[in-house]
Specification:
By secondary structure, the chain is an alpha/beta fold. It has helices at residues 20-23, 28-31, 37-40, 42-55, 79-84, 126-133, 145-158, 175-185, 194-201, and strands spanning 11-16, 59-65, 111-115, 137-143, 162-171, 190-192.
Length: 202
């Protein structure tokens, strides 16, 4: 597997949806009672990786799941998400809000991408920004493994970005689903770890 940060200026660590509304105790998911230890543990595990990428001159890209407010301020929520997360409401994941932002432990990002679906590439400026920045290699971390991470990784692959998923830098609400997704992605892109990324950058 190619090392994503052999040339740091061309490599990016993509932090998928590590936002306050997902992770912070005051965020929408905490208020709705949707939490998982594996997800809560990610920031501490990823912090050394983020710091190392910054030191070596690599890019930090954060993607931000977004609920676009309608005319009355109520969010535009797809029916499947509303069924899955009925607690989501006005102000949650709203652009510019506290909940929408990347968690403080991992910020700031060099580039931030709003997204409205699982994939960070779907109807967003993601590909345009990466190409303009000269980024050709992507290492993915974040949540959830079987949702935003997997969809973004697969879309990066078909767009010819050299990509890898950081297996212990991602998490899902169930460990078995996380494991199955990493196994599935390994047939498409490289699989690495936080320790390996740190070793590559040392």
């Amino acid at each position: 597997m190619k090392r994503i940060f052999d040339d740091p200026a061309c490599g990016a660590l993509v932090l998928v949806d590590l936002q306050n509304d997902f992770l912070h105790p005051d965020g929408a998911y905490a208020r709705g009672g949707a939490a998982a230890k594996d997800i809560a543990d990610l920031p501490a595990r990823l912090k050394p990786v983020v710091d190392a990428v910054r030191r070596r001159g690599g890019w930090i890209v954060s993607t931000h799941f977004t609920l676009v407010p309608g005319r009355d301020g109520e969010p535009m929520i797809s029916s499947h998400l509303k069924s899955l997360r009925p607690f989501l409401g006005k102000g949650d994941f709203a652009p510019g809000s506290f909940g929408h932002a990347l968690i403080d432990e991992l910020g700031p990002a060099d580039l931030a991408i709003d997204k409205v679906a699982y994939s960070a590439f779907y109807m967003s400026r993601m590909e345009w920004v990466l190409r303009r920045a000269g980024i050709t290699r992507l290492a993915f971390a974040g949540i959830v493994t079987n949702g935003g991470v997997a969809a973004s990784v697969r879309d990066a692959h078909v767009r010819d970005f050299d990509s890898a998923v950081i297996s212990d830098g991602c998490a899902a609400f169930r460990r078995d689903i996380h494991d199955a997704t990493i196994l599935s992605l390994s047939s498409v892109v490289g699989v690495t770890s936080c320790a390996q990324i740190l070793a590559d950058l040392s």
